[in-house]
Amino acid sequence: ARLYKTGDLGRWRADGNIEYLGRNDHQVKIRGYRIEVGEIEAQLNRHPQIREAVVIAREDQPGDKRLVAYLTAKAAKDDSANALSIEELRAQLKTLLPEYMVPSAFVLLESLPLTPNGKLDRKALPAPELGAYASQEYVAPEGEIEETLAGIWQDILHLGEQARIGRHDNFFDLGGHSLLIVQMQERLR
Question: Which of 44, 74, 38 has its CA nearest to residue 56?
Answer without folding.
Answer: 38
